[in-house]
Design brief:
- By secondary structure, the protein is mainly α.
- It has one domain.
- 70% of the residues lie in helices and 0% in strands.
- The protein contains ten helices and no strands.
- The chain starts with 8 loop residues before the first helix and ends in an 8-residue tail after the last helix.
Amino acid sequence: MIPLFDTSITNAICVAITAYLLGSIPFGMVLARIMGLGNLREIGSGNIGATNVLRTGSKLAAFLTVVFDAGKGAVAVLVARAMFGEAAAQIAALASFVGHCFPIWLGFKGGKGVATFLGILLALFWPAGIAACLSWLGTAIIARISSLSALVASAASIGWVWVFGMPTAVGLVVVLTALVWWRHRENISRIIAGTESKIGK
């Protein structure tokens, strides 16, 4: 099911472009530079997300990266919804997520989108967003593997949006989840092989 398309094509295009550019802001790299932590591309996995920021040794920088990466997805959704309606909110959700994963500023080589995904879900439909965050947390406590937590939380979110009463978001969440899993394909291989690093190591 998809939401009623309640905005013009022009507005939809403007929302998509604006949300993509917002999502493209690499807050992890920006914060690492501002806080003198170095170039994330030369640290750990080279990823721009919070997990790799944590490898710099700064928990504050990692926390702020989560907040800003989640925030940019949430802001894109909330502003689009307030201005143009539900269809625009879902367009903004997808565009901001794509922006994070494939940012124009970094040659389309961005992050894996977990924090942005959760921020989007919280803004789009907060009960499902909270359930997804708890799914991530529960998996992290049990398995202590960040990537596995992301995979479980994203997959579970498909059911959460349906169970909590927003079936019009299922299609969008399926697409976002597929992108999360695609971005984690190397992690999946390591999880299967038993070589994926654990939280805190």
